[in-house]
Amino acid sequence: MRVAIVTVGDELLSGDTVNTNAAWLGEELTDRGVSVERVTTVPDDVADIARVVNEYRAEHDAVVVTGGLGPTHDDVTMAGVAAAVGRDLESHAEAREWLTGEGGYSADGLVEGTTELPARARMLPNTEGVAPGAVVEGIYVLPGVPSEMKAMFGQVAGEFDGTETFTTVVDVDEPESELIDRLDEVRTRFDVTVGSYPGDSVRVKFTATDPTTAEDAAAWLGARVDLVEER
After folding, report:
1. Tell me: the pLDDT tens digits for 212-228?
2. pTM
3. Could you give all domains of the chain from N- to C-terminal order, each with its CATH number?
4. Closest by alpha carbon to 85, among 122, 43, 64, 55?
C-alpha cells in the first residue's frame, strides 16, 4: 500500500509548532508495512490543500491529511479536501448526532461549520475533541492536535496494510563517506533496503521482509566496520 501524508498549518511552516504528527504517522504506517512515499506540509489555504491532495490521491492508494479541522477562520482543510474531490461541503447529520449524543454537546452550542464535511463522506468521531474527521475517496482527514489525531487514526488503522518488514540497526564509528563500498556490497549480497544516517556515529539501518535477512546483513557489515563501543 502506497500512502502520502499531508500536514496542514501555517504554524508548521513558520516553525512555531514542531511537526510531530508527520513523524508519528510515518512510523505507525511503516510499522504496518505501508510504503510512505510523500510527506508534505501546506499552508492554511484552500487552493494549496486541494492542489496537493488531488495530486497525491491520483498517485497513491491513500492520502492522510492532518490539521486545520474546526470552525475557525483558518480551519480550511475540509474545504480544501472537498475541492480536491469536486464535492460540496455539507452539514453532516451523523456528525451532528454524534456530537449532541456521545459528545455531550448541545445543538445550539455547536459553532457553525463544526459538522460540515465533504458530501457523502464517512464521518470519523473525535473522541478526544470536537471537530470530526472524514474519509472520502481514499483521503483520511484527521485533526492536528496530536492526542486527537492519534485517537482518530486508531479508528482507521486497520485500513492500512502492506508487507510486514523487519529492521536491524548497526552503529558504525567511521565516516559515512568511507562506508560506500561496503554498503554497496551488502546491498548486492542481501535482499535488504539500507539506510545510513550520520550523526555522532553513522546509524546503518537494514530493512527486509524477514528478520533473518536483516540480521544476516547487519552481521556481515558489523564484521567489516569499526563499531561504536557500548558505554
Report:
1. 999 999 999 999 999 99
2. 0.87
3. 2-159 (3.40.980.10), 166-222 (3.30.310.50)
4. 55
